[in-house]
Amino acid sequence: MNQIIIIGKGPAGISAAIYLKRAGVDPIVIGKDLGALGDYKSSIENYYGFDTPIDGKKLIQDGIKQAFSLGVRILDDTVISIKDNGSHFLIITKNETLETKSVLLATGKTRENLTIPGYRKFRGKGISMCATCDGYFYRRKKIGIVGCGQYMKHELEYLSRMTKDITIFTHGNNLDEDLGFPIIDERIVEFGGTDKIGFVKTEKGTHEVDGLFIALGAPSSLEFANQLGLIVEKGNLLVNQEYQTNVPGIFAAGDIIGGKLQIAKAVYDGMEVADYIYKYLKDINKKMA
Amino acid sequence: MNQIIIIGKGPAGISAAIYLKRAGVDPIVIGKDLGALGDYKSSIENYYGFDTPIDGKKLIQDGIKQAFSLGVRILDDTVISIKDNGSHFLIITKNETLETKSVLLATGKTRENLTIPGYRKFRGKGISMCATCDGYFYRRKKIGIVGCGQYMKHELEYLSRMTKDITIFTHGNNLDEDLGFPIIDERIVEFGGTDKIGFVKTEKGTHEVDGLFIALGAPSSLEFANQLGLIVEKGNLLVNQEYQTNVPGIFAAGDIIGGKLQIAKAVYDGMEVADYIYKYLKDINKKMA
To answer: Which of its termini does chain A have fewer beta carbons within 10 Å around, N or C?
Structure first.
């Protein structure tokens, strides 16, 4: 059984991993993409300690190397879902299922980087990032799901309980699999509608929808929040002074708990939460002994 | 009139300077030595973002360069004293006197690095780091003062109001000046005594003292605290949630306010305090207008 699994390999997750490792706890870090910083076009000037501006992607990669050098296990994988088994948690990734006593959510915040026209306009107006959050509102409706990987299949499985009228949009990616629903593999050129989304326009046609679920990349923290019953306030995971969510054993740090969306703050969060995770584990391990 | 003078060019001071500069405020940073990190023999592994361990001295120097590149004015000077003039503050350095509306104390904590035998034993037992804190207890007593620069002279001026029986120990440094008190310019080899300091042994002789004041390098934050009437608790400057000391306009951040003595925490403090200084200045500038 693992002691702690950290989801996210940005500043908060890696900083926590470094402090935990040095405190004698063996964390596992799971992450796939480089997060918001990996997308940065511009360089970073306000994070202390670099005499020349540093590229966001390089900073993230150096942080990963730093933790790795200290002996932290880092899995290049996508977490699809988290299950609370009462005494412990199951982390279901694209490749495997891991058991752990505690979890640190440090997934960061997904920046709006889908550049398809209409995306911003209808985000929250029929376009959803979270099947378990909004799926219920589309019972027996006509919906679309955008994605092509494991995460899309996970969302599809959930949504197929709500409605049978689902179209899969791969946005130009190949998907040679029969999933029981029509697959449109052309690139999407526009999301359209009036006050809410009404259709998805691809290179070759227009497809009416009542709602659309985006399941590209990795699940957002909101998705995990919903799976676990975590309290969300104004789009941020609610934590107490010890970075604990309302579910004992589930911690959160970095951008997803709100506050300044700054590297210095995420790094500080990581250092602080490591202490509280350490104490939590010491406590439950004592009780189990 | 300057808006903000930051004393200390370590992680807290420089991080605050960077954030203030980017917020449109022109800070001046004053610092002389490299502080606790500059003394680090070992390298730093737990501050996020470096794929290989980084030398403490290099980190400090890179931080200074980073602020400088953004246009922050950095003075290589020692602050001797700070005076509260009611409407503003006077910063008296070795070289000049500056006026400012607000001050950020980010001097760090002096690590115990005097290696003379007996120093640790009698620290707090007759050996003091702060004339304005402890001078009063040595009225008409026989005291020594260790130092050779501007800071020593500042302490001497204060102590000479308490007693006329003062010996200056330069610890091997030259001091060709008549200061009105005997000067011993040999190296100190031992601090001796029984339950409290009783004598200073140099290469050529032994000198009895009732108390000894260390005035090497730069004044400690405690010294400034005493000059300004700041509240100190357990060796830390007391600040509120907005990093304000009990004297309006005087802020403090980093190691000197306590908490974890970690770079990540000092950098975070710097980012946070910058915001509060910005708001404070906006407020008082509005009142003045």
So the answer is: C
Q: Give yes or no: residues A45 and A73 share one domain.
A: yes
Q: What is the dihedral of CA A22, A25, A26, A28, to 10 degrees?
A: -100
- pLDDT attached to residue A208: 97
- Tens-place pLDDT, residues A178-233: 999 999 999 999 999 999 999 999 999 999 999 999 988 777 787 899 889 999 88
In the numeric block, the tokens 């939590």 are attached to A280
Q: Given an 8 Å threshold on Cβ–Cβ distance, is B270 in contact with A264?
A: yes
Claim to verify: residue B7 and residue B104 sit in the same structural domain: yes
Cβ of residue A175 closer than 8 Å to a chain B Cβ = no
Q: List chain A residues with CB under 8 Å of B268.
A: 264-265, 267-268
Distance from CA of B20 to the nearest CA of A (A): 10
- The CA-atom distances, in angstroms, between B6 and each of B13, B190, B201 are 6, 36, 38
* Rounded CA separation A274/A277 (Å): 5
Tell me the CATH number at A145. 3.50.50.60
The pLDDT mean for chain A works out to 91
d(CA B42, CA B36): 12
Shared domain check, B227 and B193: no
- Say if the ipTM goes beyond 0.95: no
| CA B200 centroid distance within chain | 25
Q: Tokens standing for A187? A: 């690139």
Confirm or reject contact between A47 and chain B (CB < 8 A).
Answer: yes
Q: Which domain holds residue B159?
A: 119-214
Contact B49 A46 (CB under 8 A): no
Residues 256-275 of B with CB under 8 A from A: 260, 262-265, 267-268, 270-271
Number of domains in chain A: 2
Provide the β-strand partners of residue B83.
B90
Cβ–Cβ < 8 Å for A270, B47: no
pTM of the shown model? 0.79
Q: What is the C-alpha separation between B130 and A267, in angstroms, rounded? A: 35
Instruction: Going from the first residue of chain B to its last (289 residues), give the mean pLDDT of each consecutive group of 10, the final group possibly shorter.
Output: 96 97 94 64 83 91 96 94 93 95 91 79 90 87 92 90 95 89 95 96 96 84 88 90 97 94 95 96 88
Nearest to A264 among B15, B62, B262 (CB): B15
